[in-house]
């Protein structure tokens, strides 16, 4: 007889191959080529480069590129748009170095850290340019720690991207400044109010430079206040990432959950009034360009962050230059001493296919995904609803069975209506069944727009504008049932927690006598012919 061969010699499968087969480590998967062409099927690896390797503390100075503060009282501000030669030198300096690739955060698990992602490339880009930009990442992080709530979820350390946790997001429908989300594209400049001014030129008939004191002079410009919700177009991006990953730049596509949205009372002056003070626009002018004070990097180029809004939006008095946020001076992290607020547009306009107005959307803040909910036949659901472009949530509906049966949230359980602000809600939905179920929320706005049912219906490569019905899987435990109450008591009596629900019980749930009695009441396994 042939002797037994040890198992370890007969089983040659790699120890982690099961993970690859099941898609648990997709970043390591190559291409399965079933085409007639020859291509490289291996996953991408960073290739060696002839360029000089960038090492954080060892970057040599460049005498031809002297990046300093442009103006007194403006720390961290570098003007790029008016100096094309300086931009060209910065690009040449970039070309000398090899920078690390973006971290993989979609096809691999997110690190259990806060901040979740570091933004190492962006830090090194600032260090490579040098001068005043060298310390911008550290100064910006110190500002975050000083001005934001200690429980903020830091998605990206630099440029800073952060949102409030669900437990605090809708505690008040007007959000405290320290909890309002931040989506930065660069550092946080430190500008003194007394040194600040704004330049209006281009296609205005009478170009002017106005100080902050000029803008706050009510004999020139009437002061206005407005309750406005600002939302990042990446809100709820994580739902797309989980199902169908897309473009993976950690700054462009940070893994936002439901907290990249915030409502505040903004005080300032209408941009329309300021342009009128400058003699209006010249014929043919269609857009207003807004220049930020932060340095932005794209495609190896240095620039100031610049966006535009249509003149029609400005003419409607829906663009404000604000200096107060919730009756307080703007925090540095939100643009002190002055920022633009564009009503009903995505946050990137407040400073391919352009994104302006956000579609109708809503999200569940409580319960949380995969949470065990013990209830008495009804589940309480809390969340927010919003629609961009001057539309507002008119009706919010909740389902406890994955979207088959819907229950409207009573009007009295919705926060007040505002043209450019969200509405928070609390509603109870019947849930008789037990086990895994799916809570779903959808919103109808005043134009009768509603949300796609599935995330796939609005998926896009850039992972923007996640507006599908928000779905939260929970484990339902209906304590109105006597058998359920009995089982919960057994857990308490034996000192075992009910969660995690996947853990087997440490106690025998049924005695031998109970088991025999149960079996005696069961029909035979076989049937008679």
TrEMBL record:
Its cofactor is Mo-molybdopterin. Residues 26-70 are annotated as: Disordered. Keywords: Metal-binding, Molybdenum, Oxidoreductase. CDD domains: SO_family_Moco_dimer. GO terms for biological process: sulfur compound metabolic process. GO terms for cellular component: mitochondrion. Residues 354-475 form the Moybdenum cofactor oxidoreductase dimerisation domain. One of its GO terms (molecular function) is molybdenum ion binding. Residues 32-41 have a biased composition (Polar residues). Coiled coil: none annotated. It comes from Fusarium phyllophilum. InterPro entries: Ig_E-set, MoCF_OxRdtse_dimer, Mopterin_OxRdtase_euk, OxRdtase_Mopterin-bd_dom, OxRdtase_Mopterin-bd_sf. This is Sulfite oxidase. Transmembrane segments: none annotated. Residues 185-351 form the Oxidoreductase molybdopterin-binding domain. Residues 42-58 have a biased composition (Basic and acidic residues).
